[in-house]
Specification:
By secondary structure, the chain is α/β, with parallel strands linked by helices. Helices cover 40% and strands 18% of the residues. The strands form 3 sheets. A 7-stranded mixed sheet has the order 2-10-9-8-5-3-4, with helices on both faces. The chain has a 5-stranded mixed sheet with strand order 1-13-14-12-11, covered by helices on one side. The longest helix is centred in the last third of the chain and has 21 residues, at 262-282. It binds pyridoxal-5'-phosphate (PLP). The site of pyridoxal-5'-phosphate has 11 residues, from α3. Residues 9, 67-69, 92, 135, 139, 165, 167-168, 186 line the site of pyridoxal-5'-phosphate.
Length: 358
C-alpha cells in the first residue's frame, strides 16, 4: 500500500525526490570529495536556486547546518552576549528560549497561550535586547504570525537583531531580508526532503556582531561559528564534511519549485488551505484550534476533533494515510495536517473526503 504523509515533519517527500536520488547515485554525489569542484558546483547550485526562490539579496550569506535546532544554538552563540527576547506561543518558540538559557544567556520571554498569536506592534521590547526571536509558524499549534508585522519591528528597533524560524512555513512567506537578520529552516518540512540539513540566511550585520563578540573573548562556538562558516562558504565549502546529498537534493527541489514559479506555488498553497479549513465549516466534528482568523496557518492546519483524535488517526493509518497527532498535551485531542508543496490539490481533496466519512 502506498503511504501518504500529511505529517508536519518529517513530511511527504516532494514528488521529484526519488528521481533526484537515483541521479545522485548515478553521478556519485555521496562519494565525491567535499573539497572538489564537483561539490563546489552542488553547493553553488543550491545557493543560487534558494536565492532565486526566496529572493535572498546577494550580500546575504547562506550557511548549511545540520538542523533548525542547530541554527537556534548557532544564532544565540553568535549574536547574544546576554539578552535575547522571545515571542513564545508553542513548543518550538519555547525551544528557542530554552537553547538561550542553556547557553547561559538571559532570555526574556513574552508568552501567549497555545493557539494564540501576538499583536506584535504593541509589545514593548527592552532597549538592551540584542536579539528578538520569533517563530513564524508554530508547528505545535497552527499559529502563523503576519510577516509584515515582524518586519515592522526593524523600523521600531533598528539596532536590535531579529531571528525568524520559518521551518514549517518555508517557502510560503515572502520575506524582506533587509528587515530580518537571521532566517532559518530545516528541509524535511516545506521542501519535502530527507531530514538532516538546516539552512541559515544571515545579513552582514550579523557577522559584525559575531566578530565583535569574538574580539571581546566571548565564545561563539567552534567549527560552526559564523566567521568560520563564512570563510568556507566563500570557497563554496563547509568547515566539516556536510550532508552532501541533502545539499544536492535541496538545489534540485528548489529548482523544481522555481520552474513551477513561487507565485503559482503560493496560490496553490492557499487553495489547499481553504479546502482544509472548509472541512470544519461543513462538519461540526472538526473545529480550528486557532480561533483568530488572522493567525490561522495555511501551512499547518490544527483541528480539534470532537470525541478525540485517537480512533481517527488509527483508521487513517490503516488506509496508509498519516496525519499529525496533537502536539504534547494536545495528543489524542487534535489533528495537525501539513499542507506543504509536496501535497497536491488532489491529495487534499481525497483527505477531506476521507475525513468526512470517518
Ligand atoms: C520542526 C521544527 C523545528 C526543529 O527542526 P529540526 O530540523 O528538527 O531541528 C524548529 N522550529 C519549528 C517551527 C519546527 O516546526
Amino acid at each position: 500500500m502506498k503511504k501518504i504523509f500529511f505529517t508536519p515533519g518529517p513530511s511527504q517527500l516532494y514528488p521529484t525526490v526519488p528521481a533526484h536520488i537515483r541521479n545522485a547515485l548515478n553521478v556519485s554525489v555521496m562519494s565525491i570529495s567535499h573539497r572538489s569542484d564537483s561539490f563546489h558546483k552542488i553547493f553553488e547550485d543550491a545557493k543560487n536556486e534558494l536565492r532565486k526562490l526566496l529572493d535572498i539579496p546577494s550580500a546575504h550569506h547562506i550557511f548549511f547546518l545540520s538542523s533548525a535546532t542547530e541554527a537556534m544554538e548557532r544564532i544565540i552563540e553568535n549574536t547574544v552576549r546576554k539578552k535575547s527576547f522571545h515571542f513564545v506561543n508553542g513548543s518550538f518558540s519555547s525551544l528557542f528560549a530554552r537553547v538561550a538559557k542553556e547557553l547561559g544567556k538571559e532570555p526574556q520571554i513574552y508568552a501567549a497561550e497555545y493557539g494564540e498569536g501576538f499583536e506584535i506592534d504593541s509589545v514593548k521590547i527592552p532597549k538592551d535586547t540584542e536579539l528578538i526571536c520569533i517563530t513564524h509558524n508554530e508547528t505545535s499549534t497552527g499559529v502563523m504570525l503576519p510577516v509584515k508585522e515582524i518586519e515592522a519591528l526593524k523600523t521600531k528597533y533598528p539596532h536590535i537583531l531579529i531571528a525568524l524560524d520559518i521551518v514549517s512555513s518555508v517557502p510560503f512567506p515572502k520575506i524582506n531580508f533587509h528587515k530580518i537578520d537571521c532566517v532559518f529552516f530545516s528541509v524535511q518540512k516545506g521542501f519535502g526532503l530527507p531530514s538532516g540539513l538546516g539552512v541559515l540566511i544571515v545579513n552582514p550585520r550579523v557577522l559584525i556582531k559575531s566578530r565583535s563578540l569574538l574580539a571581546r573573548k566571548y565564545s561563539i562556538g567552534s567549527f560552526h561559528n559564523f566567521p568560520g562558516l563564512l570563510k568556507y562558504s566563500e570557497k563554496s565549502e563547509t568547515p566539516e564534511t556536510p550532508n552532501v546529498l541533502g545539499i544536492y537534493l535541496l538545489g534540485k527541489v528548489a529548482g523544481d519549485l522555481n520552474r513551477r514559479g513561487i507565485h503559482a506555488v503560493r496560490e496553490n498553497w492557499l487553495k489547499k488551505a481553504e479546502m482544509l479549513y472548509s472541512l470544519s465549516k461543513e462538519n461540526t466534528k472538526f473545529t480550528p484550534f486557532v480561533k483568530n482568523h488572522k493567525f490561522r496557518s495555511p501551512t499547518v492546519i490544527v483541528l480539534e476533533v470532537e470525541g478525540g483524535s485517537v480512533d481517527l488517526l488509527m483508521n487513517l493509518r490503516k488506509k496508509g494515510v498519516y496525519i499529525g497527532n496533537g502536539y504534547k498535551d494536545f495528543a489524542g485531542k487534535h489533528i495537525r495536517i501539513a499542507n506543504f508543496p509536496a501535497i497536491s490539490i488532489r491529495d487534499i481533496s481525497k483527505l477531506v473526503m476521507t475525513l468526512h466519512l470517518l
